[in-house]
Batch of 3 targets.
Target 1
Amino acid sequence: MNISTQTMLTDVAAQLSHPDSLQGLFHEHRDGDPLPSQPELAKAMDLCRSMLFPGFYGKSTVNTHNLIYHMGVAMERLYCIMCEQIQAGLCFAAGWSEVEAYGQTYASAQEQRKRKAAQLARAFLQRLPALRQTLATDVEAAYFGDPAAESFGEVISCYPVIKALTNYRVAHELVMLDVPLIPRIITEMAHSETGIDIHPNATIGDHFTIDHGTGVVIGATCIIGSHVKLYQGVTLGAKSFPTDDSGNPIKGIPRHPILEDCVIVYANSTILGRITIGHDAVIGGNIWVTEDVAPGTRIIQHKASHPRG
């Protein structure tokens, strides 16, 4: 390497290390203060799928005689991973602010987070049986809603909606436990895998399905009832982003749609804003909706008439 190249590399490294260029882009590592690990969370989701759908995921040799053994091993592994990752999420969210606010030593704050992470991990694992019951209704909805589906096993093994909903429902349980950061990582993993983008803060009822799935977006403050079906390319988004006096977006306000029970939204339709789509309504394909829709309403595109020449 010649001197001019070495000088250039040193100069660029110095620019990239300058504090002025790092505002909000740099997470400074401290010993004992890890970031959540996507590879470890991927392992956690593999374990969740193996416990929620045994035989379809995880060990293929599972049977009724050895299931409890495999379930116990997976549960222990999942508990250990979730303790570590939840603690990392708590560290990321708090940083030094918590230490300074309570006058703690860093070691005592870490020990407190470790205990809290273990409590949250236990609470999460206790929710898995109920979570499986809900996912079973999603499998039913996908199977009975698609004439091409030949078995529940095919739906569980192949359909992207079940993979996305498994991640979403796991992440949503963590949201309900106030676990920071990790839920969003888990749903974004499913987004990358399936093309289905569901924010973990959204609320979704049972018997939910998405046919095909690619390109679906469900925003953070969406509320979706039971027996709702979406098709590919549907967006449940926000119409606008209100700002405060400083021009910054106001966080945490309801800005996404409410879909009541038994709503169907066909492909590539966009529903924006805090509006309500009434129960049993049907939104046709390629429709733009920004106002409330009454229960039982059917909205379709009107064909344009062309005079004969």
Note: The mean pLDDT is 91.
Target 2
Amino acid sequence: MDYSKLVNGGLARLKPYQAGKPIEEVQRELGLSDVIKLASNENPLGMSPKAIAAAQQAVVNCHYYPDANGYYLKQALSDKFGYDPACLTLGDGSNELINLIFQCFANPQVNVVLPELSFIVYPMEATVAAAEIRTIPLKDYFIDTKALLEAIDDKTRLVVLANPSNPAGTALDYDTLKDFVSKVPESTLVVIDEAYNEYQTTAYVDTAKWIEEFPNLLVCRTFSKAYGLAGFRIGYMVSNAQIAALINTLRAPFNVNAVAQAAAIAALNDSEHLHKVVQVNNAERERYAAYCKQQGLKMIPSSANFVAVDFARDAQPIYQYLLEHGVIVRPVKGYGLDTILRISIGTPEQNDKLFALLTQYLQENPLK
């Protein structure tokens, strides 16, 4: 019996998502003790000490189910950003929220508009829903909002874009983004995935506040990146209250665990740690730009906590060389970017090691 014939939508056409190699796997496979991971866009400075303390305290009561509605976390988000708690949905990372949005709104009768090189989860979810996927080319790795608008018709249910984007790292300026949202028909939902939102260098604009003007806007965020809670898997979505109620109806009970909720509340209230994380990241991002310029490499302009570097040759041998020397980065062949490696920005010491290894490789293997 071929059970793939029984699955829903286009699931049988998909391949499992390939996460970045964990440190333990590389240590085991290559017999290395000193391994650094610059592959999954994690926060190398770790979570706030206040979040660690809150998580440790919350563990004591983990024989009870968590608050299914996340009352205190929603209140903390309301206090910090001014959101109406009725407009908030909590998720097992922003990834689950994206999944819920597609479950709720995508189907074989509608189409979904996505920029080229979108986070691979978006087309995966659209495929499972058997929705038509319209992929719109980028302009020099930036999202082309004019082309996105031209692709929308009366059957377009969702437009999903990440800002900053992944795996490119580019970001639209807020004026361009708001102009785009204002021109999308109200019957088409616009989903902005802001996983890397805190790392932007431009003057901050809270796009979630636009929901009062544009009720078809949904903004997804995560605590996995700048807040350093990747292992806890927690994120949130801001939308109009009706959409939040629909998504919350579909959401599994107790989807966000009690320890994650406690850690997220504490992380939100530690602005000093977040500021340090962003400051270190953005300074090191400038170092990457300077290094690539020195080495004659093209780095795609990044507003995130990673960079995409074009080596103008097959990047797989470079990836393998770094791996064998204890540095894990991310090949992006799955996106058709054979010459590019996506590199998460580490601590200054970790980046020093990467630069030294890359310099050595490039000297020993000059581009012909």
Note: The first strand starts at residue 36 and ends at 37.
Target 3
Amino acid sequence: MNTVTKRAYVLLGIIIAFMVGIGILAGSFFVNGDIWATSRYNGHLYSAGQITNAGKILDRNGVVLAQSVDGKRVYNRSRSIRISTLHAVGDTYGYIAYGAHSLCRDKLTGYSFVNGIYDLIKTGEGSDVKLTIDAELCKTAYNALNGKKGAVGVYNYKTGEIICMVSSMSYDPENKPDDIETNEKYEAVYVNRLLNGVFTPGSVFKTVTAACAIENIPDINSRTFNCTGAYKTPQGGEVICNNTHGKIDFQTALTKSCNSAFAQLGIELGNKKLTETAEKMGFGKSFNVSGVKTSPSRIDLKEAVEIDTGWAAIGQYTTLVNPLNFMMIAGCIASGGSTPTPYFVQEALTEITGNLSTNSLLNESTANTLKTMMRNNVINNYGDSRFPGMEFGGKTGTAQISGEKSHAWFFGFSCAEDFPYAIVVVSENSGGGSEIAVPIASKVMKELKNSL
């Protein structure tokens, strides 16, 4: 091989390597261009680590929640709205990782593969992002929590739109507390408790045990239970009840939230069946909510002995649940077993999550039976007057926490065709579900009903 030929091969190799490099660079730019263009080092978008120039963030009604004015990011004029919608909107530093400021960063800056952020540099404005939440409803929910840590979520179980997404504690992003990192009051303040919190469920978990009993005990609706104030297990353990209910049937056991009956059912069903039902209803699974992976509900009965199973069946033991998971369970019960995955980013939805998925958490027969039972709970226990014109069904929970006050829970749904909404409320260390969580749910659902 002569010298010219060798040089030609070397040159060809260099050209091929160059073209491969160009291809890799182009591919990286295609994949990572939005990240590079919207990084915190870009002075057109950020100043001192804060996003300054971007499009508006709006609620479902067009209320401006955040916008850029004269090179500065400003929030809604109402302090209450700023605080109550913060976890949906996000902060300018990105400490709240799953707010719209972070999730929709490329959309807000108007980034495109062809033009980058040229349009924002030229006009000073990016693209607007509309959320599904109602700012006024969020304000009502946050105020109803009355300074307690917790979460409130409301969504349309037919469409998946989250109408209310509130996490408490929160803070005013335009007047951030100096002691936010040290004050116990602000513990986990950057976490969206609806999407990423997990809590001991208490008696709301009895709906999982009830679903398991409906599917595995053929004569469950003709069964009776004798509650003497506690259930003594065959091996000598004892699960304390909240009352002495006497002889009751399955429906009454749920309405009265009888620990004795449900501990007995849990032990009869066993760890395997309880776990299988819980997992079918979403335990152990993360849901993609507008690009946010929710924290999974957790149940682990591998090491549970008989008395542990009895406590687990009433929502104690080591079980932890994610509030959004139970909001979805409420929606599935109301709609015959299935519901779309909830979302809160409206116009940017397809860019973030693609097509909505449908979740089948219950079979239709079980869902319809639970729907009747939970509707009966409201009629005969919590009171239809709390949810006027909504044909409401629901279940409370009072989750016992060692050394602290109980978590108060309520989750439920409207059966009315023209009002397909489900709600979850958890108020940490607040007391009883009926006394604390039901009034919160009532305020929120009444305002939503009146606003439509």
Note: The longest helix spans residues 3-37.
